[in-house]
């Protein structure tokens, strides 16, 4: 689920908020970094559980109509195609997903059911829903395609849901594109025989990625003085106050990565930080960062201090 770029973004955010120096105790900040990354999984579970809550809301809606004093024929014999959606049933019956929802105490929609109503009403008012409910027959592929479209076109871009998530956890806004992409990928590739662990993917690709987050944070902080000196020498004509703080943090991290992570190719490091700068800093930041890193890499190569291992890493 978690890419190396997203790990770099999380480290950048923690570095940006850090107020100490390289000699200070930063164990609390490291814990915050890992908590911030782990909390991304809660967002994933929260959005998946929203699909399940919408299905429950649809079931409740049918029951209320059936109990009406003057129930119509349609109320008494409703089209249960959405309620019986096979993709949603696959999610609801997944034991490991149920476990994860309980273990992570995902109960938001019980307390904030109004947002379930908002999504439910938007779904039932959509052309997607109207077309889907034209018949009472279905199969897994049709049901799955409908849920994919509902998530992509109604849930993911919903402004009220976006505001709700921002209020609950500010860091979730950076996580949202990655989480939405993960959910859509899993939904699209789901099969009726999906394994129990299919909907509970690992947050980190492997143990190395988690260690990368820790090492990048620690090594950047522990070498702040030396790294800052290198930045200062390359920005002599710049007033320090004119350099955006985000740019400074990205330069610190990039220089640390170039010098302290021998298995990561130079091009990968530079490209990653340029892309992050484009998204999180000023319009000209990527040009500024690229110019400094290019000069530093040339100097490292000339001095033979760019110690990269493996083929094609220079």
What would you note in describing this structure?
With 314 residues, the chain is an all-alpha fold. It has helices spanning 4-17, 27-66, 73-76, 86-92, 95-103, 108-111, 113-124, 127-132, 140-155, 159-168, 172-189, 207-222, 224-234, 245-260, 266-280, 285-303. It is 69% helix and 0% strand. The relative contact order is 0.13.
Topology summary:
Elements: H1 4-17, H2 27-66, H3 73-76, H4 86-92, H5 95-103, H6 108-111, H7 113-124, H8 127-132, H9 140-155, H10 159-168, H11 172-189, H12 207-222, H13 224-234, H14 245-260, H15 266-280, H16 285-303
Helix pairs in contact: 1-2, 1-12, 1-14, 2-7, 2-11, 9-11, 12-14, 13-14, 14-15, 14-16, 15-16
């Amino acid at each position: 689920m978690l890419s190396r770029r997203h790990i770099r973004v999380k480290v950048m955010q923690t570095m940006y908020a850090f107020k100490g120096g390289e000699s200070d105790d930063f164990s609390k900040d490291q814990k915050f970094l890992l908590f911030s990354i782990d909390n991304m999984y809660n967002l994933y579970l929260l959005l998946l559980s929203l699909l399940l809550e919408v299905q429950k809301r649809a079931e409740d809606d049918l029951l209320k109509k059936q109990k009406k004093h003057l129930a119509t024929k349609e109320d008494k014999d409703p089209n249960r195609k959405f309620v019986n959606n096979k993709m949603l049933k696959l999610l609801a019956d997944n034991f490991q997903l149920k476990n994860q929802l309980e273990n992570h105490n995902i109960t938001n929609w019980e307390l904030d059911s109004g947002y379930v109503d908002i999504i439910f009403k938007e779904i039932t008012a959509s052309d997607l829903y109207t077309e889907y409910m034209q018949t009472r027959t279905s199969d897994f592929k049709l049901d799955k395609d409908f849920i994919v479209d509902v998530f992509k076109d109604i849930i993911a871009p919903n402004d009220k849901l976006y505001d709700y998530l921002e209020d609950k956890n500010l860091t979730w806004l950076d996580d949202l594109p990655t989480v939405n992409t993960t959910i859509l990928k899993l939904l699209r590739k789901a099969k009726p025989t999906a394994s129990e662990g299919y909907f509970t993917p690992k947050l980190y690709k492997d143990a190395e990625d988690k260690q990368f987050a820790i090492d990048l944070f620690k090594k950047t902080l522990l070498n702040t003085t030396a790294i800052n000196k290198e930045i200062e020498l390359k920005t002599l004509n710049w007033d320090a106050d004119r350099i955006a703080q985000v740019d400074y943090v990205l330069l610190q991290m990039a220089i640390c990565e170039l010098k302290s992570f021998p298995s990561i190719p130079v091009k990968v490091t530079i490209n990653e930080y340029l892309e992050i700068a484009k998204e999180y800093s000023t319009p000209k930041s990527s040009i500024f960062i690229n110019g400094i890193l290019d000069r530093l890499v040339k100097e490292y190569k000339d001095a033979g201090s760019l110690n990269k291992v493996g083929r094609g890493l220079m």
